[in-house]
Task: structure prediction
Amino acid sequence: MANLGNPRNTVEIIQKHGFIFQKKFGQNFLIDTHVLDKIIQAAGITKDDFILEIGPGIGTMTQYLAEAAGKVCAVEIDRNLIPILEETLAGYDNVTIINEDILKVDVAALAKKENGGRPIKVVANLPYYITTPIIMGLFESKAPVESITVMVQKEVAERMKSGPGSKDYGALSLAVQYYAEAYLVANVPPNCFMPRPKVGSAVIRLTRHREPPVEVADEALLFQVIRASFNQRRKTLQNGLGNSAGLSVTKEDVAKVIEDMGLPPTVRGEALNLKQFAELANRLEKAD
Result:
């Protein structure tokens, strides 16, 4: 089968099947062989690996994954792409295609069935509108995900990597840092895609921590506290947490904990690092 990293081959297969890009699925196909090589390299794929690919499109990256990995399972939501994938991946006997919404797939069960419950690697060119729910869903599913190497909007990649005090820092930054180590692989300009997106992209690799870097008594409470702290960025931490409907703590409780932590009463959520958020959640849990 022709290499789909070549734009001419991509155009050919799209025209042959009369495929129409669906805006609702955020479809932008990669047409740059250098970027594809970089993704495979960054994901550190070997013949021992089981790869879960999200949104294979016409199978461009799937071909590369199939060459490098032991087994690939590609989950594609758009049923119009299934006949194309069956054609472009016909030469590979180590690829399974599932026509499903990744948010509805039980990844832990899939890993158990296809890989005996051993760690899997996720590789994807993610639709921008749904990047965060997919990544958080993978981490929260308790599935044995070793790493996630994904193409995302450049701005989202920057948010994942940012630290306290920067404008990009927020709930996503903290969630990613709690679960994984983030490494920015490469920035990717719009002309590497068909159709061209309006924004720049980036490849980021998230390598899952074996153990979370902080100890928390209640993981769910930690994330509630983080979300409440960034819901209204300009509010002080005291007001953000004290007014949050999801938290059963009073403003007085919050004020006392902030004071006990040696923080100024006017401190905002964006000033705290992950370790401080963990301490805050642990102290609030005792105050509750």
Observations:
- The chain has two domains: 7-208, 219-287.
